[in-house]
Amino acid sequence: MPTTGPSRTAVEIASQPACWREAADTLPHHRAALPVRGERVAVVGCGTSWFVAQAYAQLRESGGHGETDAFAASEFPLGRDYDRILAITRSGTTTEVLDLLAKVRGTAVTGALTADPATPVMTAADAVAVLDFADEESVVQTRFATTALALLRAHLEAEDALPAGVRTVAQAAEDAERAVAEPLADAVTDAEQFTFLGTGWTYGLALEAGLKMREAAGAWTEAYPAMEYRHGPISITGPGRVAWVFGSVPAGLADDVARVGGTLVADSDSGADSGAGPGSGSGPGSGADGSDPSTSAALDPLADLVRAQRLAVLLAEAQGQDPDRPRNLTRSVVLSVPAGEDA
Predict the structure, then answer these.
(1) d(Cα 106, Cα 109) in Å, to the nearest integer?
(2) C-alpha to C-alpha distance for 120 and 96, rounded to whole angstroms
(3) SS3 252
(4) Distance in angstroms (rounded) separating the CA atoms of residues 139 and 8
(5) In angstroms, rounded to a whole number, what is the distance separating the alpha carbons of residues 300 and 197?
(6) Is residue 51 a contact partner of residue 211, using CB atoms and an 8 Å limit?
(7) The pLDDT value given to residue 36
(8) Per DSSP, which regions of 37-126 are E strands?
(9) How many Cβ atoms sit within 10 Å of the Cβ of residue 15?
(10) ∠ at Cα 229 (63, 197), nearest 5°?
(11) What is the pLDDT of residue 296?
């Protein structure tokens, strides 16, 4: 039965600017769960939360706050020494995360970010930051994941450890308002394939954009570090296919996309000093809204992820799919046996 209004997922996507601001405002209540300057930290999660962990690990370490690694919870290297293990879990029930927290109890300080205070993670970790204002009804994660990263960015900002050029959460929220409101270009909405690219902390965002498109719309998407694009992924780019870069575009990449007839989307700036700006290089590149990225104001990459989320919903609906009920997915993965064990 067709919906008569926007999907629940679309409503949650549109609420992200407000959620990011609330995360920054409530930071003082969450500090016990967050890393201390100088700690050696591992950040873990599953799916979307793992990609957020990767983005944060890059930001924290490059900002000088401390050595930081990111792992899928099921792949954590038990026996490796860390001062703190920080888990990201929207549901608070994910089997792999809870199993890991149980295994490392007493060997390191543990913290968690979650959306639901009535779940097992509340006692599994030493301290928990509850972002219940960003909880979701949707199966596909959008606002909880980005709000968790906004909180972690706000913490780095407060600790004077935000990497040079990376925008404040307040600025990112302003950009997200644009990302929610501006229309998406036909060259993007009509494309048949998407390759998402990122550098440094934005590589995690590229991975998440690809996952979102697959989850909500079943779209053909891939994601790579931007400098790996020429090492194979460029082979599938062509007319009707998009190369979407989060953050600065490596020198010459725009020309390479143009040469093979692809569409370049490059409308964000990571703040990294890569020697190239958003949309640098010649060729028919465009922002996701159809603008010329060399002249339009670049978005914060997290705000650019909001555009990819919107695109995923739009494509799902265009195919007659319900983005609130994606195929083969549940809100949380709860296994009948502990992770890593045979039934």
Answers:
(1) 7
(2) 12
(3) coil
(4) 10
(5) 15
(6) yes
(7) 98
(8) 41-45, 68-72, 84-88, 109-114
(9) 18
(10) 45
(11) 52
Number of neighbouring beta carbons within 10 Å of residue 220 = 15
Q: Which two tokens stand for residue 276?
A: 């190239």
Q: Kindly state the DSSP code that residue 201 receives in the 8-state scheme.
A: T
**Residue 325 in contact with residue 139, Cβ under 8 Å?**
yes
- Which helix or strand (DSSP H or E) is residue 241 part of? strand 241-246
Strands 68-72 and 241-246: unpaired
**Mean pLDDT by 10-residue block, N- to C-terminus, for the chain (343 residues)?**
73 97 98 98 97 98 98 97 98 96 97 97 98 91 96 98 97 98 95 97 98 91 97 96 97 98 95 46 50 65 98 91 63 56 44
Looking up tokens 């020309």 gives: 255
CA 49/CA 261 separation, integer angstroms: 34
CB 176 within 8 A of CB 303: yes
Beta partners for residue 105, in sequence order: 108
CA 9 to chain centre: 16
Which residue blocks in 142-242 are alpha helix, DSSP H? 143-158, 169-181, 186-189, 202-217
What's residue 277's pLDDT? 42
pLDDT at residue 158 in the model? 98
User: What is the reported pLDDT for 319?
Assistant: 84
Angle between helix 301-318 and helix 169-181 axes, rounded to 10 deg: 30
Residue 2 neighbours by CB distance under 10 Å = 6
**Residue 255 CA to chain centroid, in angstroms?**
27
Exposure string (b/e) for 78-101, b if CB count within 10 Å is 16 or more? eeeebebbbbbbbbbbbbbbbbbb
Instruction: Please tell me the number of Cα atoms within 13 Å of 6 on its side-chain side.
Output: 12
> How many other C-beta atoms lie within 10 A of the C-beta of residue 170?
12
Phi/psi for 15 (5° steps) reads -85, 0
- In b/e form, how buried is each residue of 176-198, taking b as 16+ CB within 10 angstroms? bebbbebebbebbeebebbbbbb
What type of residue is 109?
V
- In the numeric block, the tokens 């957020």 are attached to 52
pLDDT at 293: 45
Residues 219 and 64: their CA atoms lie apart, in Å, by 37
